[in-house]
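Q: Two folds, back to back.
A: First:
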Amino acid sequence: MMGPAHSLSGAAAWLGVGAAAAAADRPMPWPVLLVGALICAGAALAPDLDHKAATISRSFGPVSRWLCEIVDKLSYAVYKATKGPGDPRRSGGHRTLTHTWLWAVLIGAICSVTAITVERWGVLAILFVHMVLAIEGLLWRAARGSSSDVLVWLLAATSAWILADILDQPGNGADWLFTAPGQEYLWLGLPVVLGALVHDLGDALTVSGCPVLWPIPVGRKRWYPVGPPKGMRFRAGSWVELKVLMPVFMVLGGVGAAAALNVI
């Protein structure tokens, strides 16, 4: 899928988690619901760090382009080293390592550990990175072009600072779900994991499928492209994505937010 659909699906997924948490009598304070949705929207773009033409590759200027090249080469090396007898030859690492459940869990764990060990500046860094990605994804065309990069970074930095201050206030959710001393912001890894997995599931709906199960082998393939039957798949950027899935994500996100805030 394309950037806007990925980001919308990520935000909708976290709002759905908010609704489930409210139903389970562990409601999210509104700042957690908002910040989690934005992080999840940003994290839903991050698996494409293995593709030099993806939204994330231009989100942080030369740094992200350089990082995309490294991740692409790393992913390709892992693919070659671990592919099964039924896996095809490849010329690059796109839709391999970063499109797996293991990568999603690893990145989420890194964010959680960073948040509780580096504390304030770690939280700000996580928020800033994902705010940039969320803006790039949700405002895809408006945020395109090098002339807008600085504005996006300034908006993301300002938003990260304000939201961190709001979360720090008593009762606003710094310790949501994890309440032991020293576990503030441990939950920040959850929307990161969810966003990456939602990205993988979205890609699984496209014609190429997605090897989200790696390293679990399926038949003779270790990089089995999970997906529905061929007739139910679509091409990225097609009318199915733009005219059907994106409106559905918007509606589901609205319903999830309303349920999470006990409006319905």
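A: Second:
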Amino acid sequence: MSQIHAWAATAAGGVCEPYAYDPGPMGADEVEIAVEHCGICHSDLSMLDNHWGMSRYPFVPGHEAVGRIVALGERVAGLRQGQRVGVGWMAHSCMHCPTCLSGEHHLCAQSQGTIVGRHGGFADRLRCHWAWALPLPETLDAGAAGPLMCGGITVFSPLLIHRITPTARVGVVGIGGLGHLALQFLRAWGCEVTAFTSSESKHAEAKALGAHRVVASNDRRALRAIRGSLDLIITTVNVSLDWQGLLGTLAPKGRLHVVGAVLEPMMINAMDLIGGQKAISGSPIGSPTALATMLDFAARHQILPQVEHFPMSQVNAALEHLRAGKARYRVVLDADFGV
């Protein structure tokens, strides 16, 4: 088996350097993908710096990969050589536990993240279980579609989980890598969309992306002005917020749904939930079926992230661009091994 060439960090917070490894024998349920493009997600930075305490080094980031299948294990079903697919946060699930058999593969206790104990997509090739290699609709731009595989499904899944109707009034907190996709999905879904941002410079852009109105998330008076008006809020940021103020904008039976990895405890007053029978929930990505649904919806409405491209050989510059908060709104690496 030929070696896979990649970019890897050898220690927490380190730079990525050329790295080659032997992937070993091909698994019967695995596919191998020749990576063409790979998005960079904030989760790559968290794993690179070992913020979550589960990184292993050498560490190859990358879990928003798009490429063509170059090899298939003997038990692979429904995929073919040369087919273009996308791979996101998840690379493997057991396929036989009650959770998998009920269609919730992304919640499998034996699941494996693409960059958790495995080497990711900052490489010329990538392996995963066939169920997590999702065929990419031909009408989607392959060069921009990678971030849909993680960022896209993260904000799309709440619409499926909570059976959001087109008449729902939905707020999105944070107009960044996740939020700018959420606005597009919700507008196409038919919802009345409110964008929450602390950056006044993003107001016009939020409306262009699909928001009907924009509210300053750090302005208590602005939050009180829309009190009781929203059915759902999707919060995409990873910092603490005015939770009481946001809960106040929810209508009775409204829900605050968390997809941003806030590391500090959320200070919530129980009475803010009890009085209006409100709820707080969260979710990770989505099942293979949810991913396929999201890709079909994105293709139908031509929803794609706004991306900036870097050659994969400039991976460290791309990572610093994201780390500095300069990305508008996602960064995609274009594989240039052997160029």
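Q: And?
A: The chain has two domains: 4-148+286-334, 152-282.
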